[in-house]
Amino acid sequence: MYGRKVKLRFLYVTLILVTLILTVYLVLKSLEENVVYFQSPTEIKTLSELDKNKIRVGGMVKKNSININSDEVNFIITDFKNEINVSYSGAVPNLFAEEKGVVAEGFLKDRNFFSATKILAKHDENYMPPEVKEALEEK
Predict the structure, then answer these.
(1) What is the SS3 assignment for 112?
(2) pLDDT tens profile 51-72
(3) Residues in contact with 83: Cβ distance below 8 Å, sequence separation at least 6, in sequence order
(4) CATH superfamily, with its number, for domain 37-121
(5) If DSSP codes are grouped into helix, strand and coil, which group holds residue 47?
(6) pTM
(7) How far apart are CA 131 and CA 109, in angstroms?
(8) Residue 83 and residue 26: Cα distance in Å, rounded?
(9) Whole-number percent of the chain with pLDDT over 90
């Protein structure tokens, strides 16, 4: 009924569509494993059940809450409504300080305790690295 050219075109279009669908599925599946959700301390307090996946908790470092031991840093992240205790082993970024923004990536132990594997200190939009500032002042 259909000519040879029409059948070949239909076959090519079908193969391209199947390949495209399979590629999109594989990309989305691989991205799903690498997604890290961001939550505030208030959102963590209202969770119905605790998830064992890696998450990020963000907020401000509470004043007078940083406690540095020989191998561990303990501090409190607050969003000015709720707080969560954070424990981290490792070097903290230079911008990490009290009453500054911070994002901690790691695992939730319970609604009040977070074990961080990575600390990301946040800065405002006016921040400029010292090297760039010096280079601009020279010109």
Answers:
(1) coil
(2) 788 888 888 899 999 999 888 9
(3) 41, 62, 76, 77
(4) Nucleic acid-binding proteins (2.40.50.140)
(5) coil
(6) 0.68
(7) 40
(8) 38
(9) 38
